[in-house]
């Protein structure tokens, strides 16, 4: 019996347990006061109570068993005489064993290594022996726990409360995954970052203005690991250029859609704009690099900026701005809609025109929400990698010239991690440090955004 | 958006029915506002059915009636706030000093400056007290300089009886005031653009008894300076503040007359039933 | 401890290869050829960069680790050391061919020729110890054209960049005897002077294997690109090589060593996996065979190693001779 | 006064026009992007072909069609040396260097033809075989002088046909032979894993946070983490996947399982956030009604709130999935940036996904890949537009009004 | 989740004050529900101040008082609906047939089945009419089969006076009914789980007069079968439907007694002022 069939068997028995639990509870069901049943919970809940008892412990046992049994099986197989011819230790021995095992399980038909064939029979025997043990133990557990729970069914058993408590635990666990992930991210970055900072001083890294990683420190001890240009590039593309494109377009789109557009137009236009956010960033990257960047460069040259390079902060920023228009517009949409309509009515009743009402009352009132939304959009923009990889180049320039090439943190992370440098060189480890700093920055941005949004919500409640 | 919304039957409907039959009166002076044969529809549903009424300068007019009878709807027709509801449609004739307010050449922005409105829930803008009051004068260009604006703000607050309470904190946010103060702020805001008519839709229903008393007092003081229309659920309040009362029921104007008459000696059975709490 | 899993999860039937993006297209062609008749399962080939690949390759022995590492540079002693501490005791090094570093410009650009010293002076951070102030090529040498220095080259993380510094910059740099002397007296200073590239915008980091670089050269006809030879060859209709010391970057010039920018490409094979992972030695054999003068890799832009090297490699492949740390100097 | 009013109305009209312009500009960008991509990409679905006449009886010396039927058909084609048959036919027709005109693996289409209709081995047949990518590029656009010369030489024989291989093949070196099926399947499997993990977890977490979570430190912490995760750069999820799933749990590299897990972690917060909004939109009166007749909090949620919030949750899920579908950066870190010529058949098989394939192809030296890249983009966009349309449909279909 | 929420002072507070002083009566039979010294706090703010009251089986009890005086708050304490407000905290003792409803062993789910509630705004589930009614019996396991369930649905709808109007369209959505029908549907839904007490929080305030009359009639019919508590703003309604009236003011119970006494001859000055419309 394989573990899958065993699992199905256990689940099947669980259903049987559910049935018996329900049956017993239904038998106890008599009318008490009024038409109310003497049962605390519906028979269904009693059924689930028994079923959970039957399934959960056995399943946990099976999981543990599936971790323990392979090595027991291998040990048993190695005790067979055929094992004597195996090479001692090493990958070859392991590979032969695992091949033999795969054949024994029927996952594989032919052996690449002839030695494997001899081990198949001992494996088969060991496997069926231990599978038998596991199956018997699991089934015993199903019965023991199921019967225990079944015996406990009484009219006043709070089966529903117990089931609900279990469900609640599951819900809580689901939301804890977010914290686990956050901690996981932190842990997966922090060790390499620490190694990096043991080679490069954090001060130089955080406040250095030159990003040009060198193998050895220069004459003035400069290492070229100054992250400021990267962060500047990130801010320049993601928070300045992209926002110059996205904020007016997004905000005005939201205003038009919420305040002026007929419902029909709005119901069509909104999803169309949302497609902008759904287009994969590789596509944007490709578009930016092959269409927008050359066009912008030609434009720059035609207006006399001869130094314009074809990978420009502007190209990446503009395309990124287009990408996040829907983020800004939907946030603005929400927060304008959240301004109580009594504000609008108040202003209109004073004799203000529609646009005056929007500009002087709605936008100021919605501003915190809009700002919160923009901050979230910014954190999305600064995390964007592909557009920049493809369109903005890799040159870490500290420049405010939008026609020159700059680079961003995420781009450099990709570049450093997929580069040819040895993995313990600071050049590779810097990627983790950049990642950690970026993570902390987005965390801060989010905390601010949350604060702002929360504060503004309270203003109307 | 609704600038081009206009009355479908304005020309033929004027003076078609005798106002006297539905109780519209014109005994004291020329009426400030007149409504004739007004019908309002929300989509297919008729909310106001052939209502004619006159509003005078020197009296406070109260609209009473059970919930959903169309009091607010009619009130909002009087300064075209109903324009903001896309499905609302209105026929009939409403005039402000003889000007048809639904005529195409009528500018709704100026109309609303002349006919101010105070809402059920106090709705100060989330700006400073000063800016709340100054908002109207600014957009209408009523003040030429800072002093003049200051003056308007001060006098409006004084007339709304709020000056002494807020004069030291004009820069505080309007939303930081208590409910009753906020409602008086809204009244002051309406006064600041120097309207001719003030419409109030249940101005006290969100307020506690003490704040209510203050507002009622204020209405007393404002009477005569502005034509005031007030919607209320509270018949005692109507009796206390108004000189004329209109009783609405299911979208029709059942009875309109002197407040004392309505409350002591109603002509209609329905009015009597409502006044005595038989329903509503 | 379950030995059948070898700590790394059993065995597998396809070869796994990681490493340099420069070698990637060649390895891809070999992998395709290797499995073309369905004789062998198609290898899984990842482009991780040489460094990232090394860390995977050296993580240990077993099915969970790659069998082959593609490298655009030689393995570093520290990397070999790590391999060995992780149980990867026998690593076989095979030079599969040569990649030229071509200096190129758009066909429309003004043709000119360069020397290693001129390139060094144009892109070094501190040529011969002085801060680089050259803005135009003519600032370096009046005979050069009078337009701004604008060089698209590999980023500092790339293997092509290492080759650029070693094969061209250092060559230009040691023409000065004072600087050359530093090599023994102050190695750090020497490396700083000879290897550091200027960061003031005249040298622009660009991806190495990137179609975009051609577009960029076409868009800026007066700029110069530095990239792998295979790339030049594939785009001869829009870019042309710039002669270095009078030698054009052609196949023959690079193969013969006449052209200065040429670097060997390697693959590293985990000997402990040979005979365990099906087809591993056949794949390596195929790679070596494909790298001859008329092999398909050469059509794809690889430059065949000199015959002497090829002969040696055949031997290494036959015996699977592991690399000795001492060979790495 | 009148002048002032006129000015105010002018401002009103201006403002409205600006709003309209903003929308049109945004929609215009989208249209432009789509037009450019389709314009570049549609040629990727076609291939340039030259006719080759194969006289099967003559070159094979007569084989029976029956041996190509059934399960052994493929093996028998292998053994009959089809590439040589095809090459010799080409040389017969186009001379000694004729094979240089054709894409090297053109014989595979002949093989497919035989398998589809074994009878053709008894006759003389004309097959259209794809030319090399240089000639293909030159014929469709403009190429090297050499290939342009060939194009003009054979101009009356060259034709374009639909490239079925593009839909059924996987990655390859020769742009004439590449296909997106492998990457498409990889995307499909990866998305499935992502959906199966992120959807339940996301929905349960949203329900917990919106309906039950007590106001305490832990809840705040969860809330901040979720909001932050929704904004964390995707590349960082790649580093997480590398460290946790590959290095710590030792899952198989490059597999759709790890890709799906990583993307699920990335998508989950999006689902939680949209799910919370959907749950919030269910009016409290429904909850009170259920509580008021004695439903337990859990019954309230699972009987009333969840069904009502589901359309909203689903739209959010699809949006989140769409983002995951287009994601490249995290997958580079976990080994899915790879040349994989066999489509995956399980969650642990090495796989690559559409956006990664696009990224890899856009990096290829061969010019023939340019239009293939755009063609793959079209496929990806179609995939996405389908998902978006589904989201809109759900939103409109199940939107409940209270 | 709030199972463990319990009364802080339950033991010592029982019978500490004489109910007579605050007007709690127990003249007609044993009371169905008793409340003693109940205090409710929202955060720091006290919303109910030391209220003691008895609710009898055979009479309808009306809670009246100005807005914000705590009527709803107190009502919601009676079936622990206040548990859903995290900041709400309650002390004192409320018993249903002698069982402390805030005792830890009291199952709030069963309590709410015994003490049903009807809300201000009709809130049918967006399901079919049948499922609206059947939901409660299903989750409480009141019916063992389809017939029994059908029977419960039918009799509940009949008792709520809705059967004749909806019997042909039981599968239509509950939200498609008119406001008054929806409210009767909600009452039927409450009846379906066979409660002992029904709490109604301004059940007619969103309805038109005709629907209101129907509901009042229904309340008359239900009297005696259930202990009914109704909160209303409308004093006439209280006078019409209730036998006992409790007047709340600022969180305290000012007066509690026979409805006729309260309306004709109130003991307290405050009650008189409110009844006569002096405020509120
Ligand atoms: N925006 C709207 N859309 C559709 N119908 C509406 C709208 N506003 C009001 N109605 C309907 O018009 C009728 C009159 O409503 P209105 O608000 O004028 O009543 P009211 O007398 O002010 O009631 P209340 O005392 O509750 O404020 C009602 O039946 C109402 O349902
Ligand atoms: N959820 C809550 N949080 C905080 N304070 C509340 C809450 N609900 C009610 N209150 C406050 O408790 C007091 C009593 O409110 P309650 O709703 O019980 O009054 P009410 O008598 O029902 O008024 P109404 O007639 O307007 O319904 C009010 O001051 C109110 O502001
Ligand atoms: Mg109203
Ligand atoms: Mg209330």
Automatic annotation (TrEMBL), chain A:
<keyword id="KW-0813">Transport</keyword>
<feature type="transmembrane region" description="Helical">
    <location>
        <begin position="230"/>
        <end position="251"/>
    </location>
</feature>
<dbReference type="Pfam" id="PF00528">
    <property type="entry name" value="BPD_transp_1"/>
</dbReference>
<feature type="transmembrane region" description="Helical">
    <location>
        <begin position="6"/>
        <end position="25"/>
    </location>
</feature>
<feature type="transmembrane region" description="Helical">
    <location>
        <begin position="313"/>
        <end position="340"/>
    </location>
</feature>
<protein>
    <recommendedName>
        <fullName>Phosphate transport system permease protein</fullName>
    </recommendedName>
</protein>
<feature type="transmembrane region" description="Helical">
    <location>
        <begin position="171"/>
        <end position="191"/>
    </location>
</feature>
<feature type="domain" description="ABC transmembrane type-1">
    <location>
        <begin position="232"/>
        <end position="449"/>
    </location>
</feature>
<dbReference type="InterPro" id="IPR011864">
    <property type="entry name" value="Phosphate_PstC"/>
</dbReference>
<feature type="transmembrane region" description="Helical">
    <location>
        <begin position="429"/>
        <end position="453"/>
    </location>
</feature>
<keyword id="KW-0472">Membrane</keyword>
<dbReference type="Pfam" id="PF12501">
    <property type="entry name" value="DUF3708"/>
</dbReference>
<comment type="similarity">
    <text>Belongs to the binding-protein-dependent transport system permease family. CysTW subfamily.</text>
</comment>
<keyword id="KW-0592">Phosphate transport</keyword>
<feature type="transmembrane region" description="Helical">
    <location>
        <begin position="272"/>
        <end position="293"/>
    </location>
</feature>
From TrEMBL, chains B, E:
<dbReference type="InterPro" id="IPR005670">
    <property type="entry name" value="PstB-like"/>
</dbReference>
<keyword id="KW-0547">Nucleotide-binding</keyword>
<dbReference type="InterPro" id="IPR003593">
    <property type="entry name" value="AAA+_ATPase"/>
</dbReference>
<keyword id="KW-0592">Phosphate transport</keyword>
<dbReference type="InterPro" id="IPR017871">
    <property type="entry name" value="ABC_transporter-like_CS"/>
</dbReference>
<dbReference type="Pfam" id="PF00005">
    <property type="entry name" value="ABC_tran"/>
</dbReference>
<dbReference type="GO" id="GO:0005524">
    <property type="term" value="F:ATP binding"/>
</dbReference>
<keyword id="KW-0067">ATP-binding</keyword>
<feature type="compositionally biased region" description="Polar residues">
    <location>
        <begin position="10"/>
        <end position="31"/>
    </location>
</feature>
<dbReference type="InterPro" id="IPR027417">
    <property type="entry name" value="P-loop_NTPase"/>
</dbReference>
<protein>
    <submittedName>
        <fullName>Phosphate ABC transporter ATP-binding protein</fullName>
    </submittedName>
</protein>
<feature type="region of interest" description="Disordered">
    <location>
        <begin position="1"/>
        <end position="32"/>
    </location>
</feature>
<feature type="domain" description="ABC transporter">
    <location>
        <begin position="33"/>
        <end position="275"/>
    </location>
</feature>
<dbReference type="InterPro" id="IPR003439">
    <property type="entry name" value="ABC_transporter-like_ATP-bd"/>
</dbReference>
<keyword id="KW-0813">Transport</keyword>
From TrEMBL, chain D:
<dbReference type="InterPro" id="IPR035906">
    <property type="entry name" value="MetI-like_sf"/>
</dbReference>
<feature type="transmembrane region" description="Helical">
    <location>
        <begin position="188"/>
        <end position="209"/>
    </location>
</feature>
<feature type="transmembrane region" description="Helical">
    <location>
        <begin position="256"/>
        <end position="279"/>
    </location>
</feature>
<feature type="transmembrane region" description="Helical">
    <location>
        <begin position="375"/>
        <end position="394"/>
    </location>
</feature>
<keyword id="KW-0812">Transmembrane</keyword>
<dbReference type="InterPro" id="IPR000515">
    <property type="entry name" value="MetI-like"/>
</dbReference>
<keyword id="KW-0813">Transport</keyword>
<keyword id="KW-1003">Cell membrane</keyword>
<feature type="transmembrane region" description="Helical">
    <location>
        <begin position="229"/>
        <end position="250"/>
    </location>
</feature>
<dbReference type="InterPro" id="IPR005672">
    <property type="entry name" value="Phosphate_PstA"/>
</dbReference>
<dbReference type="InterPro" id="IPR024573">
    <property type="entry name" value="DUF3333"/>
</dbReference>
<feature type="domain" description="ABC transmembrane type-1">
    <location>
        <begin position="184"/>
        <end position="391"/>
    </location>
</feature>
<keyword id="KW-1133">Transmembrane helix</keyword>
<comment type="similarity">
    <text>Belongs to the binding-protein-dependent transport system permease family. CysTW subfamily.</text>
</comment>
<feature type="transmembrane region" description="Helical">
    <location>
        <begin position="300"/>
        <end position="322"/>
    </location>
</feature>
């Amino acid at each position: 019996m394989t573990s899958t069939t065993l699992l199905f068997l256990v689940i099947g028995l669980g259903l049987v347990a559910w049935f018996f639990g329900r049956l017993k509870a239904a038998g106890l069901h008599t009318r008490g006061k009024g038409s109310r049943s003497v049962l605390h919970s519906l028979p269904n809940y009693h059924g689930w109570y028994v079923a959970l008892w039957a399934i959960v412990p056995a399943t946990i046992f099976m999981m543990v068993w599936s971790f323990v049994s392979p090595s027991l099986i291998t040990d048993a197989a190695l005790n067979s005489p055929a094992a004597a011819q195996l090479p001692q230790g090493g990958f070859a021995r392991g590979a032969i064993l695992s091949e033999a095992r795969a054949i024994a399980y029927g996952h594989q038909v032919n052996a690449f290594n002839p030695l494997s064939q001899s081990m198949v029979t001992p494996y088969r025997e060991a496997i069926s022996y231990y599978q038998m043990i596991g199956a018997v133990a699991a089934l015993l557990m199903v019965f023991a726990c199921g019967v225990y729970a079944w015996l406990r069914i009484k009219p006043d058993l709070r089966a529903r409360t117990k089931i609900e408590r279990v469900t609640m635990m599951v819900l809580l666990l689901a939301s804890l995954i977010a914290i686990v992930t956050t901690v996981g991210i932190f842990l997966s970055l922090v060790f390499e970052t620490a190694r990096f900072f043991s080679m490069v001083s954090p001060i130089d890294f955080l406040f250095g203005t030159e990003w040009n990683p060198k193998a050895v420190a220069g004459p003035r001890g400069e290492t070229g690991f100054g992250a400021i240009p990267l962060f500047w590039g990130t801010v320049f593309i993601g928070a300045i250029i992209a926002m110059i494109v996205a904020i007016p377009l997004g905000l005005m789109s939201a205003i038009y859609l919420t305040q002026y557009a007929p419902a029909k137009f709005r119901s069509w236009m909104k999803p169309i704009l949302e497609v902008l956010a759904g287009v994969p960033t590789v596509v944007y990257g490709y578009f930016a690099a092959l269409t927008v960047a050359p066009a912008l460069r030609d434009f720059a040259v035609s207006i006399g900026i001869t130094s314009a390079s074809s990978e420009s902060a502007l190209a990446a920023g503009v395309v990124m701005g287009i990408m996040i228009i829907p983020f800004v517009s939907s946030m603005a949409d929400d927060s304008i809609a959240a301004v109580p309509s009594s504000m609008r009515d108040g202003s209109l009743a004073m004799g203000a025109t529609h646009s005056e009402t929007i500009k002087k009352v709605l936008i100021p009132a919605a501003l915190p929400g809009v700002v919160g939304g923009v901050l979230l959009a910014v954190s999305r923009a600064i995390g964007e990698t592909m557009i920049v990889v493809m369109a903005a180049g890799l040159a870490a320039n500290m420049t405010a010239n939008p026609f020159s090439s700059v680079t961003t943190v995420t781009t450099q992370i990709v570049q450093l991690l997929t580069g040819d440098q040895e993995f313990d060189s600071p050049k590779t480890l810097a990627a983790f440090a950049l990642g950690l700093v970026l993570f902390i920055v987005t965390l801060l941005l989010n905390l601010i955004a949350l604060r702002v949004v929360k504060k503004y919500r309270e203003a109307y409640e | 958006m609704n600038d081009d919304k206009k009355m479908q039957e304005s020309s033929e409907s004027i003076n078609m029915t005798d106002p006297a039959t539905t109780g519209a009166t014109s005994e004291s002076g020329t009426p400030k506002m007149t409504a004739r044969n007004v019908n309002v529809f929300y989509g297919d549903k008729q909310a106001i059915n052939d209502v004619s009424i006159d509003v005078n300068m020197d009296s406070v007019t109260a609209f009473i009636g059970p919930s959903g009878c169309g009091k607010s709807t009619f009130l909002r027709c009087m300064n075209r706030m109903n324009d903001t509801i896309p499905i609302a449609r209105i026929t009939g004739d409403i005039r402000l000093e003889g000007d048809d307010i639904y005529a195409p050449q009528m500018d709704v922005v100026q109309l609303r400056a002349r006919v101010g409105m105070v809402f059920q829930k106090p709705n100060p803008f989330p700006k400073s007290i000063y800016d709340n009051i100054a908002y109207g004068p600014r957009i209408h260009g009523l003040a030429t300089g800072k002093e003049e604006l200051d003056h308007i703000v001060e006098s409006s607050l004084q007339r709304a009886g709020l000056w002494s309470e807020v004069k030291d904190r004009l820069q505080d946010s309007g939303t930081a005031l208590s409910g009753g103060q906020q409602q008086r702020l809204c009244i002051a805001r309406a006064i600041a653009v120097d309207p001719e008519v003030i419409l109030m839709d249940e101005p006290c229903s969100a307020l506690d008894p003490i704040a209510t008393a203050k507002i009622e007092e204020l209405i007393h003081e404002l009477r005569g300076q502005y034509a005031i229309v007030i919607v209320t659920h509270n018949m005692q309040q109507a009796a206390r503040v108004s000189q004329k009362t209109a009783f609405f029921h299911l979208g029709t104007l059942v009875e309109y007359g002197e407040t004392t008459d309505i409350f002591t000696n109603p002509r209609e059975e329905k009015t009597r039933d409502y006044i005595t709490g038989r329903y509503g | 401890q379950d030995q059948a899993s070898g700590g790394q999860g059993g065995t597998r039937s396809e070869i796994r290869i990681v490493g340099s993006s420069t070698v990637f297209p060649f390895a891809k062609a070999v992998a395709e050829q290797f499995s073309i008749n369905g004789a062998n399962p198609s290898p899984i080939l990842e482009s991780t960069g040489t460094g990232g690949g090394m860390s995977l390759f050296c993580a240990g022995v077993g099915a969970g680790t790659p069998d082959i590492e593609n490298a655009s540079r030689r393995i570093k002693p520290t990397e070999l050391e790590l391999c060995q501490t992780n149980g990867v005791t026998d690593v076989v090094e095979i030079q599969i061919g040569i990649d030229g570093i071509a200096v190129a410009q758009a066909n429309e650009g003004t043709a000119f020729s360069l020397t290693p010293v001129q390139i060094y002076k144009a892109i070094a951070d501190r040529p011969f110890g002085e801060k680089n102030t050259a803005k135009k090529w003519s600032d370096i040498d009046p005979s050069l054209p009078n337009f701004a220095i604008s060089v698209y080259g590999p980023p500092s993380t790339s293997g092509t960049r290492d080759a650029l510094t070693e094969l061209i910059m250092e060559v230009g740099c040691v023409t000065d005897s004072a600087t050359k002397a530093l090599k023994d007296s102050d190695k750090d200073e020497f490396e700083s002077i000879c290897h550091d590239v200027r960061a003031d915008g005249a040298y622009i980091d660009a991806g190495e294997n990137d179609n975009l670089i051609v577009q960029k050269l076409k868009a800026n006809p007066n700029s110069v690109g530095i990239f792998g030879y295979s790339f030049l060859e594939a785009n001869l209709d829009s870019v042309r090589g710039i002669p270095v010391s009078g030698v054009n970057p052609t196949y023959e010039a690079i193969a013969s060593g006449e052209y200065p920018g040429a670097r060997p490409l390697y693959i590293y094979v985990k000997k402990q996996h040979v005979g365990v992972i099906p087809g591993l030695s056949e794949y390596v054999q195929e790679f070596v065979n494909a790298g001859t003068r008329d092999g398909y890799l050469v059509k794809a832009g690889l430059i065949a190693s000199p015959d002497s090297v090829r002969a040696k490699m055949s031997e290494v492949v036959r015996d699977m001779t592991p690399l000795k740390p001492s060979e790495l100097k | 006064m009148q002048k002032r009013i006129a000015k105010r109305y002018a401002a009103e009209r201006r403002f409205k026009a600006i709003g309209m312009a903003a929308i049109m500009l945004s929609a215009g960008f989208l249209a432009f992007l789509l037009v450019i991509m389709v314009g570049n990409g549609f040629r990727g679905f076609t291939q340039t072909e030259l006719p080759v006449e194969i006289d099967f009886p003559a070159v094979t010396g007569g084989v029976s069609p029956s041996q190509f039927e059934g399960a052994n058909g493929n093996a028998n084609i292998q053994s009959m040396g089809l590439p040589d048959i095809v090459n010799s036919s080409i040389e017969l027709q186009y001379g000694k260097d004729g094979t240089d005109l054709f894409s090297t693996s053109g014989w595979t289409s002949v093989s497919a033809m035989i398998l589809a209709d074994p009878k053709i081995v008894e006759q003389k047949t004309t097959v259209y075989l794809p030319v090399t990518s240089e000639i293909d590029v030159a014929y469709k656009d403009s190429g090297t002088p050499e290939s342009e010369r060939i194009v003009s030489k054979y101009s009356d024989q060259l034709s374009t046909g639909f490239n079925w291989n593009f839909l059924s093949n996987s990655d390859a070196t020769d742009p004439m032979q590449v296909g997106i099926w492998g990457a498409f399947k990889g995307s499909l499997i990866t998305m499935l894993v992502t959906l199966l993990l992120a959807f339940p977890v996301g929905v349960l977490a949203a329900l917990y946070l919106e309906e039950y979570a007590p106001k305490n430190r832990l809840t705040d912490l969860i809330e901040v983490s979720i909001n932050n995760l929704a904004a964390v750069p995707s590349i960082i999820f790649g580093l997480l996947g590398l460290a946790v799933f590959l290095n710590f749990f030792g899952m198989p590299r490059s597999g759709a399982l790890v890709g799906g897990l990583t993307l699920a972690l990335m998508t989950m917060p999006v689902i939680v956030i949209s799910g919370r909004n959907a749950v919030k939109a269910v009016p409290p009166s429904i909850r009170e009604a259920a509580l008021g007749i004695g439903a337990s909090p859990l019954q309230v949620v699972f009987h009333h709130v969840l069904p009502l919030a589901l359309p909203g949750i689903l739209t959010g899920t699809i949006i989140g999935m769409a983002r995951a579908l287009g994601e490249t950066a995290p997958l580079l870190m976990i080994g899915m940036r790879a040349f994989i010529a066999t489509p995956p058949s399980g969650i642990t098989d090495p796989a690559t996904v559409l956006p990664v394939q696009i990224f890899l192809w856009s990096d290829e030296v061969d010019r023939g890949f340019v239009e293939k890249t755009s063609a793959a983009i079209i496929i990806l966009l179609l995939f996405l537009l389908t998902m978006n349309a589904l989201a809109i449909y759900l939103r409109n279909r199940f939107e409940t009004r209270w």
